[in-house]
Amino acid sequence: MPELVFFSGTMDCGKSTLALQIEHNRSARGLQGMIFARNDRAGAGKLSSRLGLVTEAIEVADELDMYAYLVDHLSRGARADYVIADEAQFLAPEQIDQLARVVDDLGLDVFAFGITTDFRSKLFPGSQRLVELADRVEVLQVEALCWCGARATHNARTIGGEMVVEGAQVVVGDVNQAPDEVGYEVLCRRHHRRRMTAASARAGALSPDVLPVDTLERS
């Protein structure tokens, strides 16, 4: 039976890499997929991974009816055996409904990838609708780590290394941005609650500094 599967996790946990792997595995078996993406770090019409892998995708605009797009594609004699939707948290709830209809009415598997909550630890509307409708929700097992070494569970927005908790829900950025740009950092719940980023905690690495050793003067 076809399924709507939601693969979720924090930033930097390999969601896009898995999406590209699923595309590779199926295309290697002669299947043809329809790939949708929105606000990818590599630009419009791209699905990219931080590992450097990238493929072409259909950029999802606000007005795009994804179900109607697939119906038109198939009606013209083109082929689609499955659907991949990356950065699905940025999709509107009605677009998630359209993906569910692709599964139910067209009989295609839909694999959606996205983060669940925003920088304020609030659900993205698209992710909320996916949790409500998905046949399965898979939490990725590749754990991103907070600067303290604990498992990262929250996404923090930063400016100049300082965590911010106000602003528009969607501001495109990435981890490891320049200090004066809007960036993101994954944190454990404790440090997200305390608004402690790596910069504010003066924690530049997971390993502790070497303890200083006094040099003894010899006479």
From TrEMBL:
Annotated InterPro entries = P-loop_NTPase, Thymidine_kinase
Provide the binding site for ATP: G9, T10, M11, D12, C13, G14, K15, S16, D86, E87, A88, Q89
Catalysed reaction(s)?
thymidine + ATP = dTMP + ADP + H(+)
Q: Where do the catalytic residues lie? A: E87 (proton acceptor)
Keyword Nucleotide-binding (UniProt): yes
Q: Which terms are listed as keywords in the entry?
A: ATP-binding, Cytoplasm, DNA synthesis, Kinase, Nucleotide-binding, Transferase
The record describes its quaternary structure and partners as: Homotetramer.
Tell me the protein's name.
Thymidine kinase
Q: Which organism is it from?
A: Streptomyces lasiicapitis
